[in-house]
Amino acid sequence: MNNPLQPPESSHEPSPIEPPDFTPSNEDRNLAMIAHLSGCAGILAGGLIGFLGPLIIYLTQKDKSPFAELQAKEALNFQITLLILSVVCGVLLVASCGALLPIIFVPVVLQIVFGIIAALAVRDGRPYQYPFNLRLFQ
């Protein structure tokens, strides 16, 4: 008889995100790092194309490298989240007649800070998950 205070015994299968014996290759780590850093490069184009790098890596690696695919999806979701945040900040800027000018820099700062943190994590072979992110691509 099962004890209702204890969770039922289940076979704990390894997560597809981080299998226990999985170590990403240098190429996988480099691709994941490019996925995260390409968002920073997208800032140079006004922040509107930061999602292209992760999207390209996701589409080219989705059947080849589980680590690069996972991190490209994470970076792509973050770029879309930042794009939405940029639109909201732009609307707030216009609605305040420019009084909230510093708010327009929030997405840029978030992109640079979290993009670098993510790149450093995947460089060491650790999967990175952004602290706030719309999970549009699963």
From TrEMBL:
It is found in: Membrane. Signal peptide: none annotated. The chain crosses the membrane at residues 33-59, 75-95, 101-122. Pfam families: MamF_MmsF (PF09685). Its main location: membrane. It is a multi-pass membrane protein. Residues 1-23 are annotated as: Disordered. Keywords: Membrane, Transmembrane, Transmembrane helix. This is Putative membrane protein.
